[in-house]
Amino acid sequence: MKRFSLKLKLTLLYTFFTLLVTCAALAILFSLSNREVLEAAQSKLESRVQESTEDLRLRSGTLQVDNDFYSVTQNVYLSLYDEDMYFLFGKVPIGFNSQPDISDGELRTMTDGNISWYVYDMSYRVSDTRTVFIRGITSVTEAEESFVVTLRFALIILPALVLMTAFIGYRMTRRTLLPVKKITRTVQEIRADADLSRRIGLPEHSRKSGDEIYGLAETFDEMLSELEEVFSREKQFTSDVSHELRTPVSVILAQCGACLVDESLTPEQREQILLIQKKAEEMSAMISQLLFLSRADQGRQPIQRERLNLSELTYMVAEEQQFLAEDQGAAAKIHCRIEPDIYADADETLYIRMVSNLISNAVYYSGDHAEVTVELRSSDGTVTGRVIDNGIGISEEDLSHIWERFYRADDSRSKGGRSGLGLPMVKWIVEAHGGTVTAHSRLGEGSTFVFEFPVSSHSEEES
To answer: pTM value?
Structure first.
């Protein structure tokens, strides 16, 4: 199911409730207006009939009317009758064909065909001996039609009102959620390049507005500052500790070497000293890795790019790892499928360390009968390498964590001299060369590590 953005949801909610309130208000308004229109028509009819008495004159015993009596004012037609319902003067609207009896002072609604009429009769004593009747007629249908026109106009305006409301709501919501968008983008950038120095950086006047979301953004910036300081102290601590540990470990290795030269050692003593030496060498290697990563974190790890024959370097590393495996008594077989004469701009020391880590990991986790394949090819300006093994593999849940420092999936992968720093080093080296590294594995079916980086350095490509 498609998930809508918060901005769209708030816009739709704002538009819906605005439309709901508008429609309810219009419904009430038109309901009252319809009644008001009809009442106004009745009031105008009665007023016009009553005012028409001023247009009647009795001169020399003859009844006369002014011209205003014949005029149709406010859609009211006037007619004058005698006591016997004989038509004397005035006008009758077209379509009103009936001739109802006089009903003095009563407002009636009459229907003639498809048209409804208001009829109002009023008696008027012209003299002591003579009384006439004034009849006023107005169309109810025309009054209602004028209201219907207004209603239709409102229905035409309503869609425009909805669009305008949606537009205004969208702009308001977008402006309100702008800090959220900036927070999201900042987090994504931090995740992409691990740069905690980034800030949301809202304008100063926005921070003083009192808006809760802007307050959240400011709090997020403060949290980033604190995290940056904490990580900076942690990196410095790691660097300091690694430096401090190098000297005692070097002394331990030197003393182990000196002790092993002594021929008076018993076999048991020699075995114990060799064990101390082995663990000290593992510790020395781990300290070296920590120093490397610490310098990388602080941006102090130099990269000396030069034009290298990666094919020859990869062959050399694979052969070296084969000799090391045989020297340790492992029946490992390292096969090479390397295209000849692949040249690229790379740091020789870092490239050798990267390939060595990948191959040694593959041999170590493949057991006594390891079958490791090293591939290297170049295509479309990109160097692609693969290290494939038939080892114990990595579970899906652990696969996303293997690039984390000191992470080791389980006991079978953590025994021995593995510190969990090799793959983070590989990742940094590949990314420092402008490339990417990925891992594909199934538990019990082996693993494949793939690295890619451009043949040329960025500086050469730009030039």
So the answer is: 0.50
